[in-house]
Structures are given as structure tokens and as C-alpha cells.
Design goal:
homodimer; about 375 residues; alpha/beta; Spore Coat Polysaccharide Biosynthesis Protein SpsA, Chain A; 5-stranded mixed beta barrel; 17 strands; Mannose-1-phosphate guanylyltransferase (chains A, B); Mannose-6P_isomerase_type2 (chains A, B); ManC/GMP-like_b-helix (chains A, B); nucleotidyltransferase (chains A, B); transferase (chains A, B)
């Protein structure tokens, strides 16, 4: 089908410079339990360089978004315990652009707070929410998708970016879409018919075969007025609480109001609070993303992001000089203690070596590392979690 | 066959107290490369507690021999680098009973030096040589075998103790024997027909089936005069060198003579220098040992010596509180760094965790750990060896 958006697409792809009135919101939370002992409660996944790029996932997220927002257009939302580490990793981030949550209240409260604070400061702007701990490759394609999503957001949609599903993964939720949106500046955007939870393997295969489904990477681009309007309708108490906090945020009342209101806020994901009900009402758009994406959920997916260290598919995250492998094809070694890690005769083994805890498992069991964390917790080894 | 030695046997088994004029020689050497990274060049196998008994192999060796020799009847031969560690582990050992070798010259030089020094000090006494890094269970049976071996030695034999071969091991040499010796006080001693090198699996099975073969644990009991006489005949230069050193040992000339003579001594095992040729001439006897014995050659044999830590045959050498296992039956974990070692979904895995080096392998590959050490050496990681 030929349509006039073709020209807009070309325009979007060649656009350079920040998008006017666009702010990125980066919720930095989540323990990354399946990446233990590399990822810890006090040093979660987003604070680590998991790709060997020299930049942590958080830094890479900011690097990726800054060209779209400009230096002042990044707002980080994180737990009070992580503020110092985040600011140390992001020395260019203005103090007022770091929102500290007194306790975790899930993604709706985090993103809603950022939206409400930005609305107080800047009025009706477009925000885009992007997790701090995802890995993305293909910056031009990423920027192009975000620019289209901003265009859809300006037209009043809650816009998300759907990731090309390269395999029938059961680790991700899916977005089902059809029908071109027809919004200027968002030529590839489609109507979202619905969101799904993580499917079973058979369902995932059906999704992939149908061509109608993309992975949900939790990226939401929306006008503050639209987001807060939906929130007022769907979750009025949460909306009112966040608005109250946001009004006090840049005043001397912040701490008092936070202490009063924050603990009572509903814990709910933005997917359930807004994306799903609004999609049912036809208010959600999806821009197909053609960039590489991974949420680095476990050591097996981490391995997939690393280059092979030999001709047997072995991977090392760290100094390869600290690893000595013999007959260990496909092994994944994270030498993070400075010690020599030697592996003899174990294919597909995963060895994660940190100064106070060691994990030895297999790539096939990577999703079950949470069991180890649970067992350590049951043994009161909280200082290692 | 009924023979009068029956009564002597009963006498030997019930004998108590030190054996008059009997000295134990403990050559403490050998890196225990297949137990790396637990065993190191600078802290070899014999300096470690490998059974969880609370005593190192060296200490347990002395504990085992002292009842037979008395406190002053133990002579240790070790490298100069290990003298301080040995003396720290054996505070009761008299300084003059530690012979320091300037460099490794194999077992004939070590045992021959001890024999020559003891001959200078005490004349023609019986010595028994026992490795510092073997594990033995069944003290009464051990003492009984040694007492018989001493009796055979007094009769002029080079007496060895043959270990009941419980499996067709290819890791040990074998002793072939037949025909009762008929020496008073050594009722079970037999003539040795020959020694074998480590056999292949088929040969080992034939050995076991024949009933004529026992494992060679390298234990030799012999009069100093007999040993030095054989040495003078078989290896006259080595004999003369050792005699020269021994004459100077307790004088102010020791260091000068050692520096002159030691470096030129032939490197040869006592098995090749004496046991084999003398056996061919009918001069070697063997006493069947009925005690448990192992040379703890690798992590698989180490595992066999440890009690199971669960009902799945998993073993821990160290603090079980430092180990967290899920679905890892038959695993062998040595938590020697104080860190938490967690294993998920790997049966029969071997994890040896030390402060500066980690080994992950399988029980089946335990014999090949030397490959890792060789690879580390090739990478100039000498400080870890």
C-alpha cells in the first residue's frame, strides 16, 4: 500500500537533534535477581556494564536518549538507596532531574510521578519512558522509532515501541497490532489491539507465525496531559496522590508530603494501570522497532550479547586474561573478583565469580538462578543478596 | 598352609609401644598438581587437611607413625622452602630431625640421605619410609603391618607394604608376590616377584583377578646397612655422595658439603634405584596391608574420602555453611576462600574456591587438572601455581 506517510518516514529517519519538548523518563529499579551474584539489591543490573562496552546499562540508556532529549531532558526515577550510585555514574545529570522514591511502588507510580513533576515544571510535554537496564543496538533505528512514537503521542495516543520478535520467547509480553495509525510523522505506527502476558511456548509460536505480534519492551511515549488524564480515569486515587506530591516536589514541602502520601500509593505496573485498558479503548499505538533489543534477563541472554571469546562460542564478561578454559565450549564466565577462573571439561557452564559470592550453573538453568537467591535468603545471607 | 608364624602374627597384632631401634622417614615433597588450586608449589598437598579431620596429611602421618617410633624417631626430609611450614605444623619435632633438601632430587636421594644420616647417628637401625601425603585408616592394622615389615627388614629384606587392591586402578603401581617369607615376626610377609608401573585398564583387571597383585604405596622398611649396601651396589656415585653429605651433616661443614655435592646427585626414584633390581634378586618382601589407603591423587579420590553432605552423595571439604547446592548431586565443593559457593543444576561438578584461583571441573575430569596447571604455567601465572 502506498501512502503519503512515505515522505514523513524518510524525514523521521534523517531527523537530527533533540525533539522539541520531549523528555525521557528512566525508571531505574528492579534487582535483576536472575543475574545474581553480579546484580545485587544494592548494586542492581542497571549499574553494571553487562556488555563489555565500558558503559553501564544506565549510562548507555542515557547515552542513547540524550540525542533525542538534549542534556536537560533526562529524568531519572530511582530508589533513595541508588541515588548516589546513579549520580556518580551520571555526573552530567542535574540534581533536580533525579527523583528519589522512598520505597518501590512499581512502574505506574514511578512514571506517573515523573509525568506529574514534568507537567508542573513544563506543562503539557511529551515523555518517553525507557527502562534503565535494557540493551539496545542500532541507534539510528531507535531514534527513528522514538521520533515516530513522539508524533503519535502528540496526536493523543499512548505510543509504545514494539520489538521485532526474533524467536518465540516465553520471557516477554507481546503487543498485538493491526491497521496503520495514519498519523503524520508516524508512518509505521499501528493501532494496538491488545497486550499479552508472557505466553507459553506453543502460544508464543502462534504469535510469531501470525506476524501480528511484537515484544513489549515497556517503552511508553505519551503527552503528560494524556497520561495523567488516563490515570485520573483509571486510578483516580493514585493520580491524585501523585499530583499532590508533584505540586510539593519543588517546594520545601516535598519531604513532608512524600512521607504522608507515598506509602499509601497503589503498587501497579503502568501496563495494567493504563496500557491495557486504554488499548481496549483504542487509545494505544505501536511503532515497530527495527533495532536490536534485549532485557538481559539472565546469564544466557547476557551471553548472547557478548562476542565469542574463542571458536567454540565461549563468552567472557570481563578480562579474558582472568579466564582459563579447557574443553569448555559455550561456557559463560564472568571473572569479577580479579581471581583466575579456570574451567576444565564443562560445556555450557556459567561461572560468575564475585568477591563475596560465586555461582556455578549452566546456560540451560540460567532462568532458575532466582532459586539460588531464594535459598540464600532462606539461609539469612541477606548481605549477599 | 599352616605354619608356625601364626603365633607370631597374633603377637605382632597385640604388640604395643614403640619398636626398638625403628625410625620413620617421611619424605615430604611433591606438588599434588592434580589438587590445584588447593595444593600449590608453596603449599603442597601434605600441608593441607584434605579429610576434614582437623589435621593436615603431614600431621596425620606423624600421628600415625609416632606410636611405632616414639617422639624422637621421626625424621622429615623436605625442601628448604617447606621447612618453616612443616615445623610450624609439627612443633614437637626436634630441629635435627628435619633434613632440608636444597633442591628436589627424587625419592632415592631423600630416603638415602635420611638413611645415611641415621646410620651416622645410630648405626645399623631399621628405617621405614612413608609418604607425607597419603591417607590411611585403620591404625591397628597399619601398626601390625609395619611391625611385620620391621621383622622382615631385620632379617635383611627390603620390606614393603602392599595395599589390598579394591579396584582395578590405573593410577597406582602394583607389587606381585607369592610364597610366604617364613621370617619370625612377619607371618604374612611374602616374597616380591616384581614391581609394575601403572598398568592400563585391561592389565589392571587381570592383576586384580589373579589375586597376586597389591598396590604399591611406596612404603619401604629396611635396615640402614642393607639400604646403603644395595645403593652402593646399584648406584655407587649416589651412595658415595649421600655418605659424604651425611658425614658432614652434624658438623659445621654441612652447608659447604651440601652445596658441593647435592646438585650433582642423580635424580631417581627408590623404586627404580633399589626396589626393582633387588626384587629381581629376591631381596624384597611384602607385607599385605589390611588398612585403608589412598594417595588422594585428585579431587575425585578426595571426594571418596569425605562423608556425604546430603543424601545425593555431595561432598564438602570445609564449612558446609559456605556452600549452597540446588540439583547438584554428587558435587564436590571446596569452599576455601570464605565466600559463598553456589551451584545450581550441575551433577558431579567439582568446585575448588581459593582466595586467588578458582577451579570448576567434573569428577570425571579430575585426573586432568594437571592440564589446567600446565596452561596456567604457559601463561606465566607462576604465582598461582
Amino acid at each position: 500500500m502506498s501512502n503519503p506517510a512515505g515522505t514523513s518516514s524518510a524525514a523521521a529517519e534523517t531527523a537530527v537533534g533533540p525533539v522539541e519538548g520531549f523528555h525521557a523518563v528512566i525508571p531505574a529499579g528492579g534487582a535483576g535477581t536472575r543475574l545474581w551474584p553480579l546484580s545485587r539489591r544494592r548494586a542492581p543490573k542497571f549499574l553494571h556494564d553487562l556488555t563489555g562496552s565500558g558503559r553501564t546499562l544506565l549510562q548507555a540508556t542515557v547515552d542513547r536518549l540524550s540525542p533525542l532529549t538534549g542534556a536537560d531532558g533526562i529524568m531519572l526515577v530511582t530508589g533513595t538507596h541508588h541515588v548516589a550510585a546513579c549520580r556518580a555514574q551520571l555526573p552530567g545529570l542535574d540534581e533536580q532531574n533525579v527523583l528519589a522514591e522512598p520505597s518501590p511502588r512499581d512502574s505506574m507510580a514511578a512514571i506517573g510521578l515523573a509525568a506529574a513533576v514534568l507537567a508542573e515544571r513544563h506543562g503539557d510535554v511529551v515523555i518517553g519512558s525507557f527502562a534503565a537496564d535494557h540493551v539496545i543496538s542500532g541507534q539510528p533505528a531507535f531514534e527513528s522509532a522514538v521520533r515516530e512514537a513522539v508524533a503519535a503521542a502528540r496526536a493523543g495516543y499512548v505510543a509504545t515501541i514494539g520489538i521485532a520478535a526474533s524467536r518465540p520467547s516465553v520471557a516477554f509480553g507481546y503487543i498485538r497490532s493491526d491497521g496503520t495509525l495514519g498519523v503524520d510523522g508516524a508512518p509505521s505506527a499501528q493501532h494496538v489491539r491488545g497486550f499479552t502476558e508472557k505466553p507459553d511456548a506453543a502460544t508464543a509460536r502462534e504469535y510469531i507465525a501470525s506476524g501480528e505480534y511484537r515484544w513489549n519492551a515497556g517503552m511508553f511515549v505519551v503527552r503528560t496531559s494524556v497520561l495523567l488524564g488516563h490515570l485520573a480515569e483509571q486510578r483516580p486515587e493514585l493520580h491524585d496522590g501523585l499530583r499532590t506530591i508533584a505540586k510539593a516536589w519543588d517546594t520545601g514541602d516535598r519531604d513532608r508530603v512524600l512521607a504522608d502520601v507515598w506509602p499509601g500509593l497503589e503498587k501497579i505496573a503502568i501496563d495494567h494501570a493504563i496500557a491495557e485498558p486504554v488499548a481496549d479503548a483504542g487509545g494505544v499505538a505501536v511503532v515497530p522497532g527495527t533495532f536490536g533489543w534485549d532485557d538481559v534477563g539472565d546469564f544466557n541472554s547476557l551471553a548472547a550479547l557478548l562476542p565469542s571469546d574463542d571458536d567454540e562460542g565461549s563468552k567472557v564478561l570481563g578480562d579474558t586474561g582472568d579466564v582459563l578454559r579447557i574443553d569448555s565450549a559455550g561456557s559463560v564466565v564472568v571473572p569479577a573478583s580479579g581471581r583466575l577462573v579456570s574451567v576444565l571439561g564443562l560445556d555450557d557452564v556459567v561461572v560468575v565469580d564475585t568477591p563475596d559470592a560465586l555461582l556455578v550453573t549452566t546456560r540451560a538453568r540460567a532462568q532458575q538462578v532466582k532459586q539460588v537467591v531464594d535459598a540464600a535468603r532462606a539461609r539469612d545471607l541477606d548481605e549477599l543478596l
